[in-house]
Design brief:
α2 crosses α4. Helix content is 32%, strand content 20%. α1 links the parallel β3 and β4. The longest helix has 15 residues. It is built from 10 helices and 8 strands. An 8-stranded mixed β-sheet has the order 1-2-4-3-5-6-7-8, sandwiched between helices. The model has no long low-confidence stretch (mean pLDDT 97). It is globular, with a radius of gyration of 17 Å. The protein has 272 residues and is an alpha/beta fold.
Length: 272
């Protein structure tokens, strides 16, 4: 196992992200030249924090399925857009540049995000070739492009079905600006360049309404982007793995009906 903590600091920024790696090392006894897909995990937390429940336990499950994993602890409020997306793009760049060292398949870097982390992951998915993002990082667009998006009950829209708190934390005072909110309403920015996407949501989510995933899926479908969407009829928000391992101290988060999502996501990844 290759476990490291990579510091990600942007020029002229007081904020810093940390990338925690969970990479399966190769062995002379077992496929010594094997290259594996990697899941880059963005925990949720409303752009106020990054949830432990949606971080390492998710990484460990992907490891058990034979994938590499990494967790990005990105900057949250008082950091504002585009701080976190630049950190995520830098993390993707780092993984792609060090693919040989870590036995990564550089063409199978999937960005996974839960809730507000899903908004961050999807933001990179729709903005990876935006000129200002590329210019700020001084890299080619292909270096920061995810090969796939895996979005778990994601915050997507800044419209009628928005999770208002996420946009207040992400934009600060600009959250009152209709133009800025429209810029962050990701269903409006899907193009034919958006990566393949896996989504899941519960129809009974009262925090981030299921319409967030529906709007993004519809935009993907209209642009002929391969997408897979699973909607579960029960369960609240922030379920993570929906099992005892990721349940909250009060017992919240155990939802057996939703536990299948990660196996379905693994099948989707193998078919990328």
């Amino acid at each position: 196992m290759i476990c490291e903590v990579i510091k990600i600091a942007l020029p002229e920024s007081e904020h810093q992200a940390e990338l925690y790696t969970y990479f399966l090392d190769n062995s002379p006894e077992m496929h010594p030249k094997k290259k594996r897909p990697v899941v880059l995990i963005c925990p949720g937390g409303g752009y106020e924090m990054t949830s432990d429940r949606e971080a390492e336990p998710v990484a460990v499950r992907f490891l058990a399925m034979g994938f590499h994993a990494a967790v990005l602890r990105y900057s949250v409020a008082p950091a504002r857009f585009p701080e976190a997306i630049l950190q995520l793009a830098s993390a993707v760049t780092y993984l792609r540049a060090h693919a040989e060292q870590y036995h990564l398949d550089a063409d199978k870097i999937v960005v996974q995000g839960s809730s507000a982390g899903g908004h961050l992951a999807a933001s990179l998915g729709v903005f990876w070739n935006r000129p200002d993002i590329v210019k700020m990082l001084n890299v080619s667009p292909e270096m920061i492009r995810p090969n796939g998006l895996m979005l778990c009950y994601p915050v997507i829209t800044a419209g009628e079905k928005a999770h208002q708190g996420s946009f207040r934390m992400l934009l600060g005072e600009d959250a009152k600006d209709d133009k800025k909110r429209s810029e962050m309403s990701l269903e409006l920015h899907v193009t034919k360049d958006t990566p393949k996407t896996f989504l899941w949501h519960t129809i009974t989510d009262e925090t981030v309404p299921v319409e967030n995933s529906l709007l993004f899926f519809d935009a993907l479908h209209k642009n002929q982007i391969s997408a897979e969407l699973h909607i579960y009829p029960v369960g609240g928000h922030g379920l993570s793995l929906a099992n005892e391992e990721t349940s909250a101290e009060n017992g919240y988060g155990i939802q057996p009906e939703c536990q299948s999502w990660i196996e379905l996501a693994g099948i989707w990844m193998r078919n990328l």
